[in-house]
Design goal:
By secondary structure, this protein is of the alpha+beta class. It folds into two domains: about 170 residues, no CATH class; about 40 residues. About 20% of the residues lie in helices and about 45% in strands. The protein is built from three helices and twelve strands, in the order ββββββααβββββαβ. Strands 5-8-3-2-11-12 form a six-stranded mixed β-sheet. It has a four-stranded mixed β-sheet with strand order 1-4-7-6, with no helix packed on it. A two-stranded antiparallel ribbon has the order 9-10. Strand 9 and strand 10 form a beta hairpin. Helix 1 packs antiparallel against helix 2. The longest helix is centred in the middle third of the chain and has 21 residues.
């Protein structure tokens, strides 16, 4: 029997070139012995080779990933998006929940194959029964998430000047990030048109990220 597990995203390192590193932490009740955790919320844009699972007080025995068929998903998304657009165009009065219905329709219209959830199962052998802390991390190859710095210079009297800088985050996906710690890494990845063409050993990429993270903040 598989136990569904959907821990929240606690930290997201956004790459300047698109995509990033996702870290999720949560707690789950495990039985003594073998447990099968069905990890929810992992998108098809993730890199299977980068996925790690750390279960406190337990040993990860096996990780199985099943990615949905791209063509099948894209055909379904096209039909859903068309239905959502027709609903918005033809509905004159959606009642008190008009804003919620429109928001839902817009989310459906923005979804792509990269948003589709993969089937991911983690086999963990726990030493004792009870609550266990689980930490997950993986890279997502999704160019819809990216950032860039902006700097302005204001000249004052004499030889004085004021320099101001800020980071502009782009999120062209249908997802929102609430209460998530955000880091920015000046790290460009060689993404193909379907954002699935980049491979590098996870340890090597993590080492590079540790050197290139430039700012942390809470994003709400």
């Amino acid at each position: 029997m598989e136990t569904p597990f959907d821990p929240p995203i606690t930290h997201f390192v956004i790459f300047s070139g698109g995509g990033g590193l996702v870290e999720r932490v949560g707690e789950i009740e495990l039985a003594a012995g073998e447990n099968r955790l069905q990890i929810r919320g992992v998108p098809a844009s993730f890199d299977p080779e980068s996925f790690t699972a750390d279960v406190a007080g337990a040993t990860v025995k096996e990780i199985v990933v099943r990615v949905p068929t791209r063509q099948y998903v894209e055909d379904n998304l096209k039909r859903e998006a068309a239905a959502a657009r027709r609903l918005i165009e033809t509905s004159v009065d959606l009642g008190a929940r008009r804003s919620q219905v429109i928001e839902l329709c817009e989310d459906v219209a923005l979804r792509t194959f990269l948003d589709e959830e993969v089937e991911l199962t983690v086999w963990a052998v726990a030493e004792v029964a009870g609550p266990h802390r689980v930490a997950l991390s993986y890279f997502i190859n999704d160019s819809r998430f990216r950032w860039k710095p902006t700097i302005t210079v204001e000249l004052g009297e004499g030889d004085t000047a004021r320099v101001r800088g800020h980071v502009a985050i782009t999120n062209d996906s249908a997802h929102t990030l609430d209460g998530v710690e955000i880091s920015f890494a000046d790290f460009a990845r060689d993404l193909t048109s379907d954002s699935q063409g980049y491979r590098v050993p996870p340890d090597e990429m993590r080492a590079q990220l540790r050197q290139q993270v430039v700012k942390n903040m809470m994003f709400k």
